[in-house]
Amino acid sequence: MSTDEPRPKSSEIAGQKLPYPARQSDMNQAPDSDLSNYRPAGKLRGKTALITGGDSGIGRAVAIAFAMEGADVSIVYNANDDDAQFTHDRVKELGRQCVRIKVDVRQASACRQAVDKTVEELGSLDILVNNAAYQMAQPRFEDITEEQLRRTFETNIFAYFFMAQAALPHLKEGDTIINTGSIVGLVGNPILIDYTATKGAIHAFTKSLALHLGKRNIRVNCVVPGPVWTPNIPATMPLEEVKNFGHEVALERPGQPEELAPAYVLLASSDGSFMTGSLVEVTGGKLG
User: Fold this and answer.
1) Cβ pair 210, 220 in contact under 8 A
2) Cα separation, 253 vs 267, whole angstroms
3) Into how many domains does the chain fold?
4) CATH number for the domain that contains residue 60
5) For residue 266, what are the CA distances in angstroms to 70, 86, 133, 145, 223?
6) Does 4 map to a domain?
7) Is 195 a catalytic residue?
8) Is 0.85 surpassed by the pTM of this model?
9) Which residues pair with 220 in a beta bridge?
10) Is residue 159 part of a domain?
11) 288 found inside a domain
Protein backbone atom coordinates (compact mmCIF):
# COMPACT_ATOMS: atom_id res chain seq x y z
CA MET A 1 0.00 0.00 0.00
CA SER A 2 1.34 3.43 -0.91
CA THR A 3 1.92 5.94 1.86
CA ASP A 4 -0.47 8.21 -0.06
CA GLU A 5 -3.35 5.82 0.60
CA PRO A 6 -4.98 6.01 4.04
CA ARG A 7 -4.82 2.77 6.00
CA PRO A 8 -8.18 1.24 6.95
CA LYS A 9 -9.77 2.51 10.16
CA SER A 10 -11.10 0.02 12.68
CA SER A 11 -14.64 0.65 11.47
CA GLU A 12 -13.56 -0.45 7.97
CA ILE A 13 -12.23 -3.85 9.07
CA ALA A 14 -14.48 -6.61 7.73
CA GLY A 15 -15.61 -9.23 10.19
CA GLN A 16 -14.05 -12.63 9.55
CA LYS A 17 -13.43 -15.75 11.61
CA LEU A 18 -10.76 -18.25 10.59
CA PRO A 19 -9.69 -21.54 12.14
CA TYR A 20 -6.47 -21.53 14.14
CA PRO A 21 -3.74 -21.46 12.91
CA ALA A 22 -4.92 -19.06 10.24
CA ARG A 23 -3.12 -18.52 6.96
CA GLN A 24 -2.43 -14.97 5.86
CA SER A 25 -3.47 -15.96 2.35
CA ASP A 26 -6.99 -16.77 3.65
CA MET A 27 -7.64 -13.31 5.10
CA ASN A 28 -10.18 -11.28 3.15
CA GLN A 29 -8.30 -8.11 4.15
CA ALA A 30 -4.66 -9.09 3.87
CA PRO A 31 -2.16 -7.47 6.24
CA ASP A 32 0.20 -4.99 4.64
CA SER A 33 3.54 -6.76 4.99
CA ASP A 34 5.20 -6.21 1.60
CA LEU A 35 7.42 -3.29 2.74
CA SER A 36 6.49 -1.33 -0.38
CA ASN A 37 6.91 1.92 1.58
CA TYR A 38 10.28 0.99 3.06
CA ARG A 39 13.52 2.57 1.85
CA PRO A 40 16.54 0.40 2.77
CA ALA A 41 20.06 1.66 3.34
CA GLY A 42 22.17 -1.50 3.63
CA LYS A 43 22.07 -1.43 7.44
CA LEU A 44 22.30 -5.21 7.87
CA ARG A 45 24.66 -6.09 5.04
CA GLY A 46 26.59 -9.27 5.84
CA LYS A 47 24.35 -10.21 8.78
CA THR A 48 22.34 -13.38 9.37
CA ALA A 49 19.05 -13.35 11.26
CA LEU A 50 16.81 -16.06 12.68
CA ILE A 51 13.16 -15.04 13.07
CA THR A 52 10.62 -17.23 14.86
CA GLY A 53 7.07 -16.90 13.60
CA GLY A 54 8.63 -15.69 10.38
CA ASP A 55 6.03 -17.08 7.98
CA SER A 56 3.38 -14.35 8.27
CA GLY A 57 2.30 -11.17 10.01
CA ILE A 58 5.00 -9.23 11.84
CA GLY A 59 7.56 -11.98 11.31
CA ARG A 60 7.11 -11.88 7.54
CA ALA A 61 7.47 -8.10 7.44
CA VAL A 62 10.64 -8.28 9.56
CA ALA A 63 12.12 -10.98 7.32
CA ILE A 64 11.48 -8.88 4.21
CA ALA A 65 12.83 -5.70 5.82
CA PHE A 66 15.99 -7.49 6.98
CA ALA A 67 16.50 -8.92 3.49
CA MET A 68 16.05 -5.47 1.97
CA GLU A 69 18.75 -4.25 4.36
CA GLY A 70 21.14 -6.97 3.16
CA ALA A 71 20.69 -9.79 5.69
CA ASP A 72 20.26 -13.49 5.02
CA VAL A 73 17.28 -14.85 6.90
CA SER A 74 16.17 -18.06 8.57
CA ILE A 75 12.43 -18.23 9.21
CA VAL A 76 11.15 -20.62 11.87
CA TYR A 77 7.48 -21.58 11.81
CA ASN A 78 5.17 -24.31 13.06
CA ALA A 79 2.23 -24.88 10.73
CA ASN A 80 1.56 -22.90 7.55
CA ASP A 81 3.81 -24.13 4.75
CA ASP A 82 2.21 -21.88 2.12
CA ASP A 83 2.80 -18.72 4.13
CA ALA A 84 6.38 -19.76 4.89
CA GLN A 85 7.01 -20.47 1.22
CA PHE A 86 5.69 -17.03 0.26
CA THR A 87 8.04 -15.33 2.72
CA HIS A 88 10.95 -17.52 1.59
CA ASP A 89 10.32 -16.66 -2.05
CA ARG A 90 10.09 -12.92 -1.34
CA VAL A 91 13.41 -12.94 0.52
CA LYS A 92 15.00 -14.84 -2.37
CA GLU A 93 13.59 -12.33 -4.87
CA LEU A 94 15.46 -9.65 -2.92
CA GLY A 95 18.71 -11.49 -3.59
CA ARG A 96 19.24 -12.89 -0.10
CA GLN A 97 19.46 -16.44 1.17
CA CYS A 98 16.52 -17.83 3.10
CA VAL A 99 16.09 -21.03 5.09
CA ARG A 100 12.69 -22.38 6.14
CA ILE A 101 12.68 -24.39 9.37
CA LYS A 102 9.46 -26.05 10.54
CA VAL A 103 9.71 -26.89 14.24
CA ASP A 104 7.77 -26.51 17.47
CA VAL A 105 9.68 -23.89 19.47
CA ARG A 106 8.08 -25.10 22.71
CA GLN A 107 10.78 -27.78 22.75
CA ALA A 108 14.33 -26.82 23.73
CA SER A 109 15.71 -29.47 21.38
CA ALA A 110 13.77 -27.96 18.46
CA CYS A 111 15.22 -24.52 19.22
CA ARG A 112 18.75 -25.96 19.20
CA GLN A 113 17.94 -27.70 15.92
CA ALA A 114 16.73 -24.43 14.37
CA VAL A 115 19.85 -22.54 15.42
CA ASP A 116 22.17 -25.33 14.28
CA LYS A 117 20.50 -25.52 10.86
CA THR A 118 20.67 -21.72 10.47
CA VAL A 119 24.40 -21.68 11.20
CA GLU A 120 25.04 -24.73 9.03
CA GLU A 121 23.24 -23.34 5.98
CA LEU A 122 23.91 -19.59 6.33
CA GLY A 123 27.31 -19.69 8.02
CA SER A 124 26.64 -17.58 11.10
CA LEU A 125 24.02 -16.08 13.40
CA ASP A 126 24.08 -12.38 14.31
CA ILE A 127 20.46 -11.47 15.08
CA LEU A 128 17.82 -13.50 16.93
CA VAL A 129 14.22 -12.31 16.71
CA ASN A 130 11.91 -14.08 19.15
CA ASN A 131 8.51 -13.41 17.64
CA ALA A 132 6.41 -16.60 17.62
CA ALA A 133 3.32 -16.33 19.82
CA TYR A 134 0.11 -18.09 20.74
CA GLN A 135 -3.09 -16.53 22.04
CA MET A 136 -6.71 -17.57 22.35
CA ALA A 137 -9.32 -15.17 23.70
CA GLN A 138 -11.49 -16.40 26.58
CA PRO A 139 -14.28 -14.08 27.74
CA ARG A 140 -14.41 -15.95 31.10
CA PHE A 141 -11.20 -16.34 33.13
CA GLU A 142 -12.52 -19.66 34.47
CA ASP A 143 -12.54 -21.06 30.92
CA ILE A 144 -8.76 -20.86 30.47
CA THR A 145 -7.84 -24.53 30.59
CA GLU A 146 -4.61 -25.95 31.89
CA GLU A 147 -3.84 -27.05 28.33
CA GLN A 148 -4.29 -23.50 26.99
CA LEU A 149 -2.28 -21.98 29.84
CA ARG A 150 0.63 -24.34 29.24
CA ARG A 151 0.54 -23.81 25.48
CA THR A 152 0.52 -20.02 25.87
CA PHE A 153 3.42 -19.94 28.33
CA GLU A 154 5.46 -22.58 26.52
CA THR A 155 5.13 -20.78 23.16
CA ASN A 156 5.47 -17.21 24.35
CA ILE A 157 8.10 -17.30 27.09
CA PHE A 158 9.64 -20.78 27.39
CA ALA A 159 10.53 -20.68 23.69
CA TYR A 160 12.16 -17.25 24.07
CA PHE A 161 14.40 -18.67 26.81
CA PHE A 162 15.19 -21.79 24.75
CA MET A 163 15.99 -19.84 21.58
CA ALA A 164 18.23 -17.38 23.41
CA GLN A 165 20.09 -20.22 25.13
CA ALA A 166 20.58 -22.00 21.81
CA ALA A 167 21.70 -18.83 20.01
CA LEU A 168 24.14 -17.49 22.60
CA PRO A 169 27.08 -19.80 21.75
CA HIS A 170 26.99 -18.32 18.23
CA LEU A 171 26.45 -14.65 19.11
CA LYS A 172 29.43 -12.35 19.43
CA GLU A 173 30.15 -8.80 20.51
CA GLY A 174 27.82 -6.39 18.73
CA ASP A 175 25.13 -8.99 18.01
CA THR A 176 21.58 -8.66 19.20
CA ILE A 177 18.44 -10.37 20.47
CA ILE A 178 15.06 -8.77 19.78
CA ASN A 179 11.92 -9.98 21.52
CA THR A 180 8.32 -9.23 20.57
CA GLY A 181 6.28 -8.07 23.54
CA SER A 182 2.89 -6.38 23.50
CA ILE A 183 1.17 -3.31 24.86
CA VAL A 184 -1.24 -5.66 26.65
CA GLY A 185 1.73 -6.78 28.77
CA LEU A 186 1.76 -3.23 30.14
CA VAL A 187 -1.94 -2.35 30.31
CA GLY A 188 -3.70 -5.75 30.42
CA ASN A 189 -6.58 -7.19 28.42
CA PRO A 190 -9.64 -8.79 30.05
CA ILE A 191 -10.06 -11.60 27.49
CA LEU A 192 -6.36 -12.41 27.00
CA ILE A 193 -5.26 -12.87 30.61
CA ASP A 194 -2.82 -15.75 30.02
CA TYR A 195 -1.38 -14.03 26.95
CA THR A 196 -0.92 -10.70 28.74
CA ALA A 197 0.90 -12.49 31.55
CA THR A 198 3.39 -13.95 29.09
CA LYS A 199 3.97 -10.60 27.44
CA GLY A 200 4.70 -9.00 30.79
CA ALA A 201 7.16 -11.84 31.39
CA ILE A 202 8.83 -11.12 28.02
CA HIS A 203 9.32 -7.48 29.01
CA ALA A 204 11.00 -8.48 32.28
CA PHE A 205 13.03 -11.19 30.52
CA THR A 206 14.29 -8.59 28.06
CA LYS A 207 15.49 -6.22 30.76
CA SER A 208 17.15 -8.94 32.86
CA LEU A 209 18.88 -10.62 29.92
CA ALA A 210 20.10 -7.21 28.72
CA LEU A 211 21.74 -6.65 32.10
CA HIS A 212 23.25 -10.13 32.03
CA LEU A 213 24.71 -9.80 28.51
CA GLY A 214 25.78 -6.16 28.67
CA LYS A 215 29.35 -7.01 29.60
CA ARG A 216 29.54 -9.14 26.45
CA ASN A 217 28.18 -6.23 24.36
CA ILE A 218 25.25 -8.33 23.17
CA ARG A 219 22.18 -6.10 23.14
CA VAL A 220 18.70 -7.33 24.10
CA ASN A 221 15.63 -5.25 23.32
CA CYS A 222 11.90 -5.65 22.87
CA VAL A 223 9.42 -4.23 20.37
CA VAL A 224 6.06 -3.57 22.04
CA PRO A 225 3.31 -3.55 19.40
CA GLY A 226 -0.15 -2.19 19.88
CA PRO A 227 -3.03 -3.82 17.97
CA VAL A 228 -1.56 -5.14 14.70
CA TRP A 229 -3.54 -6.76 11.88
CA THR A 230 -2.18 -10.31 11.55
CA PRO A 231 -3.64 -13.79 10.92
CA ASN A 232 -3.86 -14.33 14.69
CA ILE A 233 -6.65 -11.78 15.00
CA PRO A 234 -9.45 -13.48 13.00
CA ALA A 235 -8.24 -16.86 14.29
CA THR A 236 -8.25 -16.10 18.02
CA MET A 237 -10.52 -13.12 18.77
CA PRO A 238 -14.34 -12.88 19.01
CA LEU A 239 -16.00 -11.68 15.82
CA GLU A 240 -17.09 -8.37 17.37
CA GLU A 241 -13.48 -7.67 18.38
CA VAL A 242 -12.30 -8.48 14.86
CA LYS A 243 -14.82 -6.09 13.34
CA ASN A 244 -13.65 -3.22 15.54
CA PHE A 245 -10.01 -4.18 15.93
CA GLY A 246 -7.72 -1.31 16.94
CA HIS A 247 -10.52 1.14 17.74
CA GLU A 248 -9.04 2.03 21.14
CA VAL A 249 -5.81 3.67 19.95
CA ALA A 250 -5.31 7.34 19.08
CA LEU A 251 -5.01 6.64 15.35
CA GLU A 252 -8.32 4.71 15.43
CA ARG A 253 -6.98 1.78 13.43
CA PRO A 254 -4.81 -1.30 13.77
CA GLY A 255 -1.18 -1.16 12.78
CA GLN A 256 0.07 -3.06 9.75
CA PRO A 257 3.05 -5.44 9.96
CA GLU A 258 5.18 -3.28 7.68
CA GLU A 259 4.75 -0.41 10.15
CA LEU A 260 6.42 -2.53 12.86
CA ALA A 261 9.37 -3.79 10.81
CA PRO A 262 11.46 -0.56 10.92
CA ALA A 263 11.62 -0.80 14.72
CA TYR A 264 13.25 -4.23 14.39
CA VAL A 265 15.72 -2.86 11.85
CA LEU A 266 16.63 -0.07 14.27
CA LEU A 267 17.31 -2.53 17.09
CA ALA A 268 19.18 -4.98 14.85
CA SER A 269 21.47 -2.39 13.30
CA SER A 270 24.22 -0.10 14.53
CA ASP A 271 21.63 2.69 14.63
CA GLY A 272 20.52 1.14 17.93
CA SER A 273 24.02 0.60 19.31
CA PHE A 274 23.25 2.40 22.62
CA MET A 275 19.90 0.67 23.10
CA THR A 276 19.63 -2.38 25.34
CA GLY A 277 16.93 -3.40 27.78
CA SER A 278 14.54 -1.10 25.91
CA LEU A 279 10.82 -1.60 25.40
CA VAL A 280 10.13 0.17 22.11
CA GLU A 281 6.41 0.93 21.88
CA VAL A 282 4.85 1.00 18.40
CA THR A 283 1.23 1.25 19.39
CA GLY A 284 -0.71 3.83 17.37
CA GLY A 285 -1.24 5.77 20.59
CA LYS A 286 -2.14 3.03 23.07
CA LEU A 287 0.40 3.93 25.75
CA GLY A 288 1.53 1.87 28.71
Assistant:
1) yes
2) 25
3) 1
4) 3.40.50.720
5) 14, 25, 22, 38, 10
6) no
7) yes
8) yes
9) 177
10) yes
11) no
Amino acid residing at 233? I
Length of the chain: 288
The answer to the question of residue 234 being in a domain is yes
Let me know the angle formed at the C-alpha of 6 by 227 and 191, rounded to the nearest 5 degrees: 15
Which domain range does residue 252 map to? 10-32+42-282
- What backbone phi and psi angles, to 5 degrees, belong to 99? -120, 130
Each residue's pLDDT, cut to its tens digit, for the chain (288 residues) gives 555 567 888 888 877 899 998 899 889 888 999 999 999 999 999 999 999 999 999 999 999 999 999 999 999 999 999 999 999 999 999 999 999 999 999 999 999 999 999 999 999 999 999 999 999 999 999 999 999 999 999 999 999 999 999 999 999 999 999 999 999 999 999 999 999 999 999 999 999 999 999 999 999 999 999 999 999 999 999 999 999 999 999 999 999 999 999 999 999 999 999 999 999 999 999 866
One-letter amino acid of 93: E
The single residue of 77, 134, 160, 195 carrying the catalytic annotation is 195
